[in-house]
Amino acid sequence: MTITVDHHPRHHGGPRAGRLAGLVSRCYGMMAYASFLASFLYAIGFVSNLVVPKSIDTGVVWPPFVAFCIDLQLLCVFAVQHGGMARPSFKRLSTGRVSPLVARSTFLLCTSLTLILLFAAWQPLPALVWQAENPITAAVIQALSLLGWSIALHSILLVSRFDLFGLKQRLLSFAGRSEIATPFRTPGLYGVVRHPIYLGLMIALWAAPVMTAGHLLLASLATAFMCAGIWLEERDHLALFGDRYRQYRARVAMLLPGLF
Length: 260
Description:
mainly alpha; 2 strands
């Protein structure tokens, strides 16, 4: 009797297993997409003290130094996770370990989880820094904050919601196609400023009719992290797009048209 050993065994599930894996992958992408949108919308209420059950100025008040240390650690965890996973060096390290089809979705899901941790564990620092006494002034400042959130979300979607949230990869995989390179584009607000997402977030964080010490801590450190993110992104874009990005940078302001 001759026994034949197959050194290249086929996947026991065959096409059915492949379809199941594709379905799981698409569901994973949609879950990451939904978690990001939910955490982004919650962030609006969290920072603005609107609607949500736990906001930046609510909760048990700890001694200021204890609350400061906890909040500082939470912000650093978010900055390290979000900034680190977005860097090309991390993407190169994960190549071969994490499928490209789920890499962006995993990034979004991790970002959402660190935001949820920040929302849940944030400790209020209620000391008042400033407050708009006039109701009309307060309403105008609040509207400006909401405008900032709108600019940020609109700019995120302009990047291409399918590319950003990993849905494009899932659709290409389902159709049996490979992912294509993303071209250099400057749609909408990206033709006015190079970083409209950061601009919108800065407006949203600083336009506060009531500024507490906790809100000031969040706004200050988040702005510092965003400035560092801008520097890293500019460096990465120059390496990726070369002269096209240099020409774009010479033509379009970084954050404020006509200023910088």
